[in-house]
Amino acid sequence: MTLETEAPGAPAPASRPPTPSPAAAPSQARLALRSVRRSIAASAGSGGARLRRAGAAVAAFTAPVTGVISPVGWLVLAGSAVALALAWGLGWIELAFVGATLLAALLVAVPFVFGRMRYRVEIELQPRRVVAGERALGRLVVHNVADAASVPSQLELPVGRGLAEFVIPSIPAGGEHEELFAVPTQRRAVIVAGPAASVRGDQLGLLRREVRWTEPVELFVHPVTARLRPSAAGLVRDLEGEVTKTITNNDISFHALRAYEPGDALRNVHWRTSARTGQLMVRQYEETRRSQLLLVQATSAAHYASDDEFELAVSVLASIGVQVIRDATRLATATDRLRLNTATPTALLDDTSRIESLAQGAAPVRDLVREAAKRVPVPSVLIVVGGSRAPLAEFRAVETVFGSDTQVIVFRAELGAASRITRVGESTVVTVGSLDELPRLVRRVRP
């Protein structure tokens, strides 16, 4: 046996690259199948989009016909189709009779939806604004503008969460018919009346055709408010001319003189002192301000023990806000989801009618105040309205949003509790047990 050895210093034989195995190479069949799958998926997607567009076009075209079939009518139509199909497949004459009867009921109902009425309908609410618990009446007037007498019809009018139904008799040409109705106003809300719609259909409710005649009309049910004394005697007194610790170059409260700096207005130069010292000296002032009040209500449902307690908090907010507007103090008012209009007392009360409690998604009180203060000057007085279950720590956290020049007052609605005024940190906390006690509490509060 011969052993071969490499000579010292001889070059090593070059290594050959590994030959790829046939299994590692992509199969032509797999590539073809993948391409076919992609083509089928693209075709299916394009075909589905075309089918959806076609279906939408068909639905729009048939809407005048299918729109008059009520849910009960669709159920009867489906029952008729199933009964006739089973009768065909099973040979049962009884099912054929049932299917034919259901289909005949639909056909008999068709003539009831034909006919056209020419009405002019008016909705009047008197008054348009009431306080919760006061009475409000509505008036529905139907004018026949056709050249002939109208046929009897039925008119439906949604009022809030309810539905009022009126039977309109035959009205002569050019005549009118009037209906009166009461509007429930037990609780604060914005009640929408309308749109009024005439309804034609059969007695079984299989087919139903509606024609709308009016636009919705709003009735504002304002919260109950307490009459407060003018702010000069209470917590929202006018702070006109109150001096702050901020130093400015333009105001009326003189503070000191300082050396002139480039950019200072020449009107602030104190020429007598400048002549005496040999250098230009300018006046400095302590900034004065007029009051800016920020009124905020936390509307998280978790902060209130009941719906009545939430309504008490809204009434506190509205009572304070209305008096501040009457005193011509600058005011900004907001809740978690709503920035209220403070142009007039009526505008504010209209917006308070829209306040609703939030079951979820409410921000912490500190974040609520910070968001509400973004579009207004730094307030001199911040009033936060909340419920009895709101943690006091959330109200204390509000103190960190502004500086020491801002007074923080918290009004906590606690229905049935003894009214009191306490101090928590730098804030004044006013517990309101009933709305009747609010005027007395406001007189006692001093920011």
From TrEMBL:
Residues 1-26 are annotated as: Disordered. The keyword Transmembrane applies. The chain crosses the membrane at residues 56-89, 95-114. InterPro entries: DUF58. The keyword Transmembrane applies. Residues 10-23 have a biased composition (Pro residues). It comes from the Bacteria. Residues 257-346 form the DUF58 domain. Keywords: Membrane, Transmembrane, Transmembrane helix. It holds the Pfam family DUF58. PANTHER family: SLR1927 PROTEIN (PTHR34351:SF1), SLR1927 PROTEIN-RELATED (PTHR34351). This is DUF58 domain-containing protein. The lineage of its organism: Bacteria, Bacillati, Actinomycetota, Actinomycetes, Micrococcales.
